[in-house]
Design brief:
Length: 330
Amino acid sequence: MFGMFGGFGLGGGTFDSNYRAYPVSFIDKNDAEHADKVFLPPSALDRLASLHIEYPMLFKVENRKTGRSTHCGVLEFIADEGHVYLPYWMMQNLAMEEGEIVNLRSASLPKGTYVKLQPHTTDFLDISNPKAVLETTLRNFSCLTVGDQITINYNNRQYFIDIVEAKPQPAISVIETDCEVDFAPPLDYVEPTRQEPAPAPVAEPTLESTSEPEPAEPSFVPFRGSGMRLDGKAGSSSSAPSPPSTSAASGSRPAGGAAPGRASSSNGATPAAAAAPKQKAGKVVFAGGNRLAAKQAAAKEQKAPAPPKEPAKEEAPKFSAFQGKARTLK
């Protein structure tokens, strides 16, 4: 009856058999949906024991109709004869319907050292600790195959993840091994576009910048005020002194034997004196005038009557001891 679907080929120590595939929900084993293990009939256990198959028992599952294949482990030997119960996600990877024929062959896989996973959506990256969630999920798996799509259930949500790369082979065992896990960008991940900074606006010339610069304030020039005369009359406005002429250097004797300080011109006046404007004659006050003013001020102070002196107040008699009258005992 099961010669076609449940028979065992003579493979010289290799388990090879065909079964009708059904999901694990048919035997109320919904917990097996989060793993990669199948349910085989009890006859498969007897055959595996006689072949001395190494533990853990791993199998290659192939849909020869579509040519797709994956790998799995075995959880229990409680299936009906000629039937095998697989997780539904595994049946989807094999592109098979309920009741189709599937081939199981024993396989020996190396321990994995590296695996690269790719989530389908960026929602998986929003998990607070995706590494811990992934480690907890992979504890239920016995092997991983490149091209498979596994499902992770977390916080009442399902996350689909593709197996992109595995080392040292496309199919590896993850039982009791230290495997490095890497993540590829999610399928719906969009690289953010880099926006170039906008060019700085060019400042337009204002009326202040185009107007002519204000004239600079005149610098300070000494001796620009009006002069005062000693006799109290207003004098003429003075101008800045002109630098002395180099021709009238001190100590030089004029030509013609003239005495120092006298003019050497024939008209009896120097050229500077002739060019200078005439000024009104004024009074000349010598230093002796200050002494005269001091003497007059002292004479006024002597003539002024001295203020009357206040009479000196008499001082109160000081206390003296034994000032009273004497008394005798007689």
